[in-house]
Structure formats: C-alpha cells, structure tokens
Amino acid sequence: MPTFAEVVGQERAIGILRAALANQRLHHALLFTGPAGVGKRTAALALASALDCELAPGEGCGRCSTCTRIADGIHPDVITLAREGAAQIVPIETVRAQVVAAVGLPPHEARERVFLIDEATALQPAAANALLKTLEEPPARTRFVLMTVAPDQLLPTIRSRCQRVAFAPLAAEARRAVGGAEAEPVVNAARALIAAADKGASEPGAAIGVAQGSGEPKLDVAAVIELAAIELHARARAAALDGDIVAARLAADRAGVLLAAHAAIAIHHGQGAVSLEAITLRLQRGGA
Ligand SMILES: [Zn+2]
C-alpha cells in the first residue's frame, strides 16, 4: 500500500509534499518530474492517501478502506487518466469525460478528488488544452498530479500552472531495495538491449540470452526496460546538449519505445505480455 514511508530514496520530494500538507499549502496542481522508475507514481498514490485517508490524514495509513482502494486503483475519487491505443496517448475524450464533466460536482465520498496523469507528455494536444482550462480555474476539493520523464516537452502553459516536484535518480542501493532483486543481471540485460539496438543485431535473442547468463532463469523484465529507458533518456539529453539532433532523436525515440513497453507491462500487471526479444526488434525498427 503506497504511503510516504514506502517511497524509497526521495526524502527531498516527500519532504516537500509533507510540509505542504502540514501547512495546508499544497498546490492544486503538481508536476512530478524525474526518470522512469524512481517512485513518482508511488508518491502520487501516497499523496492521494495522505489527502483522503480516514485514519491518518496528512500521512496515509495504507490499511483503511480508502487507502486500500486508492492502492488498488478503484477509489472513485482517485482517478488515473488512462493512455490508449498503440500510440499510448490520453485523448481529449478522456479529459472531457473524466475531468471536465466532474469539475462542477463534489467528490463522491472523499475529502479531495485526485486526478493522476502518469506521463503528461502523453496528453493529446487538444487534451492538454482542455486540461489547461481546468488548471487555470481550479475546481474546489480537486488536485492534479501530473508526472513526466520529460518536463521540457510539456506545453509551457501547463508547466507554469503546476508546482514542480523533482524526483532524483535513484542511487544504486535504493534501486536494489526497490527491485528487491539482484541488480547485476538487470544492468547487464539493459546494456545488451541497448547494444543490440545500436548494432542492429540480427539475433537480438542471442544478445539477451548472453546477458541473462546461465544462472538467471527469471529476469525482472520491467526493471530491465526501465533501466534501459533511463540510460537512453540520458543519452538523448547529452546528445541534444551537444547539438547532435539526429542522435538525440534516435535515443529519444528508442526511450519512447521502451516506455510504451513498460506501460504495457504495468497495464497487464505482469511480465508475460512483453518479451525483451520483441522489444529489441521494435527498437531496431525504430518505432513503436
Ligand atoms: Zn488510510
């Protein structure tokens, strides 16, 4: 059950949220920024619990009916705007049906209604504009938590309406605690995934097989993809700073493929839906 205490390695970000809650100065729209897999969504759910928990307001107990339903994604007042289709966008219809239509009404049962947007750059432009209008005239008892790995790609008007809370890249120790798994096979497989895409290797399966090693029957595919996406995102930024737009775009596109795959795993609540081999092929084709 996500509570603030369970967010690993983000003391600064959580400290900001706790202080804002304690002072009753929490902004109505928050923008959580930082690499994939560092705890932005866990923190967003923990924040919703802190806002709405029956037993431990301001912190969240993780056990009451409210906290449990928030964690399970079934609380009627804590709503994640879903991404749809192959392009994994949040369409305008979703913003209209779930946000705009609800704005004039009070929350169903909770003190505060919380809208979560897992990757704000996935908002279709029309959807972003519709959301912007709501952010400009914030409805009562309503909070927004937008998350993104790429704040620079958001509409400046969206950014300026939100209070930004930066999540740090995880230190290796914290990452291990989050994964709960041996880190090294994951790191090796992530490197192999990127290398196979770089080389255009004809046998990505072989590259992944080597990375997995003989003694690793069960690799955490989601963790591999997440790590490879972080690496490619860092490459894209570095290339862009160097003025190498072609390389930056290639790395960013590949990171996008990985993030889509990561989202697909999350949606299916398992790892069977996506194989590393299939992802490598997609990376080599250069598209999602
Ligand atoms: Zn609770």
Descriptive keywords:
5 strands; 2 domains; Rossmann fold; 12 helices; 8% strand; binds zinc ion
Taken as a percent bin, the fraction of beta residues is 5-15%
Major sheet size, sense and barrel closure: 5 strands, parallel
The run of helices and strands is HEHHEHEHEHEHHHHHH
Tally of individual domains: 2
Report the helical percentage.
40-55%
Number of helices: 12
Q: What form results from the Cα inertia axes?
A: globular
The name CATH uses for the topology of the largest domain is Rossmann fold
Q: Could you explain the architecture of this structure?
A:
The protein is of the alpha/beta class and 288 residues long. The chain has 2 domains: 4-166, P-loop containing nucleotide triphosphate hydrolases (Rossmann fold), CATH 3.40.50; 181-285. Helices cover 52% and strands 8% of the residues. It has helices spanning 11-22, 40-52, 65-72, 92-100, 125-136, 156-161, 172-179, 183-199, 204-212, 221-241, 245-268, 276-285, and strands at residues 29-33, 78-80, 113-117, 142-148, 163-166. A 5-stranded parallel beta sheet has the order 2-3-4-1-5. Helix 4 (92-100) runs parallel beside helix 5 (125-136), helix 8 packs parallel to helix 12 and helix 10 (221-241) packs antiparallel against helix 11. The longest helix is centred in the last third of the chain and has 24 residues, at 245-268. It is globular and about 55 Å long. Bound molecules: zinc ion. Zinc ion (ZN) binds at residues 49, 53-56, 60-61, 64, 66-67.
